[in-house]
Design a protein that fits this description.
The chain is an alpha+beta fold. The chain has 3 helices and 7 strands; from the N terminus they run H-E-E-E-E-E-E-E-H-H.
């Protein structure tokens, strides 16, 4: 014990640095921003792709990381002479107000306005309960 007496000893517990609610909001905002890029690609007649990494084993049995282009699926689709926009947290569709899970707009150009509104609502914490509910139902399912 004599070796430790020259140091300042303290009792402390490490709390998580990030608030989980803020981390969930940040994740959803990043996904909405990505959907804006998907929308721009769809308007140009293409697909939005991101670089993804895949870990596999080589012929010699060693782990190998390969990169490939992954297509990001849009949250919006055409139906009923208009466009429906979902808000997703991971692979799950969030309930927006009560039991509604989509926003309807008449033109593809209006999807950008919906994405801006979804981003603002997320930033203001309007989806915190919906995200928590989605996470609970996902935990029950697994």
């Amino acid at each position: 014990m004599s070796q430790l007496t020259k140091f300042n000893l303290a009792t402390v517990s490490k709390a998580p640095d990030d608030d989980p609610v803020i981390a969930r909001r940040s994740k959803l905002i990043a996904a909405i921003d990505e959907q804006a890029k998907v929308l721009a690609a769809v308007k140009d007649g293409g697909e939005y792709r991101v670089e993804a990494r895949k870990v596999s084993k080589s012929e010699t049995g060693e782990r190998e990381v390969t990169k490939h282009a992954k297509v990001v699926r849009p949250w919006f689709f055409e139906k009923d002479n208009g466009w429906y926009v979902h808000c997703r947290y991971g692979s799950r569709v969030l309930n927006l107000h009560g039991k509604s899970n989509a926003i309807f707009v008449e033109k593809l150009d209006q999807v950008a306005d919906v994405l801006v509104a979804l981003r603002a609502a997320t930033k203001d914490g309007e989806f915190d309960k919906a995200i928590a509910s989605t996470m609970r139902s996902a935990a029950k399912a697994s």
